[in-house]
Specification:
377 residues; alpha/beta; 4-stranded parallel sheet; 12 strands; 39% helix; elongated
Length: 377
């Protein structure tokens, strides 16, 4: 399935498998097989009825840990998964331990005007689990105020492993996009949704087309699928962006790769000059798209985080601008287009930073947490 949570689950599962764990993954019926994991595509629709399906599988497989990968949209905004740890506790002393990783803190849908009750349902998921994990400092700060035991901070890593296709030629790849060696090629990686500030990027591209950088023509490549599997609101936002592209007359400046294999993602990063990720809420280490850019060593222009992230250093491993500021984004792209030395520095710094987010380390920290709550040998 296309989406960051699915990719995360695959990478974490495979890394745990390498550490000697037996890993089962339960998901919707469209979930496909992964070598090294046992994938159960059993859930037709996330809701109260899925509890029976999950309980039957638990009795059959007898796991030490049941680990929920939580993103509200991935469970169709239904609250059944939020109360799942409570149901698991009814199994008694022989029950498996329960862990939840919060990939976001969005609330599920309950009923009209549910208001604060929806937030309480998310809190219930954290409180009833034996352990909670957040993937970034922002969510850690938010969750730390509601739990007696603060959640663990275990980051995510890149869901793309850099590997170029055979006979890759950078200039040939750029030529396929209609760009010459001296043109400026920007790239954006990930699905199109409201949080990622694609509208800001398109307005900045329009500004660059109106006042071209000294390097020649400028174009933008969107790498990957357009909407993904988990969040239906992406479709509506994509329609808005398609309309904006038409209104700004940018169609001839934009290329879409569509959903492509990992080596094609790497080829696209390699052929681009800059990766631009203008997240509306500021850059965060919860974004797999950001991690993918880091591990490919591409110079990254993104937006200032909501809170200080000591891992990020402006001008060293990332170039930061204010969220939603079209002028600042266009000016930053212009500056980097004219400064090859700074681009090389940013790319090298990004690659070094990516080493902090290796999947073997992430899996080892997760396994240590399992053992800390009494699961496994």
């Amino acid at each position: 399935m296309q989406g960051g949570v699915g990719d995360y689950t695959r990478e974490l599962g495979l890394a745990l498998h390498d550490l000697g764990c037996e890993v089962d993954v339960v998901g919707p019926t469209q979930a496909g097989p992964v070598s090294g994991l046992t994938v159960h595509g059993l859930v037709e629709r996330w809701g109260w009825r899925c509890w029976g399906t999950l309980l039957d599988l638990i009795r059959q497989r007898e796991p030490d840990v049941v680990h929920v990968q939580y993103q509200a949209a991935a469970y169709a905004m239904h609250p059944a998964i939020n109360f799942w740890p409570w149901r698991l506790r009814l199994m008694g002393a022989a029950r498996p331990r329960s862990v939840v990783t919060f990939h976001d803190l969005k609330v599920p849908y309950l009923f009209p005007k549910a208001g604060p009750v929806r937030r309480m349902v998310v809190n219930e998921l954290a409180r009833r689990s034996d352990a909670a994990i957040t993937t970034n400092r922002e969510d850690l700060a938010a969750m730390g105020t509601i739990l007696a035991t603060p959640p663990a901070l275990i980051p995510i890593g890149s869901n793309i492993k850099p590997a170029l296709p055979e006979n890759f030629e950078r200039d040939a790849r750029r030529s396929r996009w209609g760009a010459g060696p001296d043109d400026l090629v920007l790239c954006f990686f990930g699905f199109i949704n409201e949080r990622k500030g694609v509208d800001t990027l398109l307005h900045a591209l329009h500004a660059l087309v109106t006042n071209p950088p000294r390097t020649g023509n400028v174009s933008l490549v969107f790498i990957g699928g357009r909407t993904g599997s988990s969040d239906p609101t992406n479709v509506a936002y994509l329609a808005e962006m398609d309309a904006l592209i038409a209104r700004l007359e940018l169609k001839d400046r934009i290329r879409w790769t569509g959903f492509v294999p990992e080596e094609e993602v790497t080829a696209s990063f390699e052929a681009a000059d800059l990766c631009v990720l203008p997240y509306r809420d500021g850059v965060s280490l919860l974004h797999g798209t950001f991690h993918a850019a880091l591990i490919h060593g591409v110079p990254i222009v993104t937006t200032r985080p909501r809170m200080r992230l000591p891992e990020l250093s402006h001008g060293e491993n990332v170039y930061l601008v204010a969220p939603g500021d079209v002028r600042a984004l266009a000016a930053a792209i212009n500056q980097l287009a004219a400064d090859e030395q700074l681009c090389q520095k940013l790319g090298a710094g990004a690659k070094i930073l990516s080493e902090r987010f290796r999947w073997d380390t992430i899996a080892a920290d997760t396994l240590e947490l399992y053992r800390a709550i009494g699961a496994g040998p």
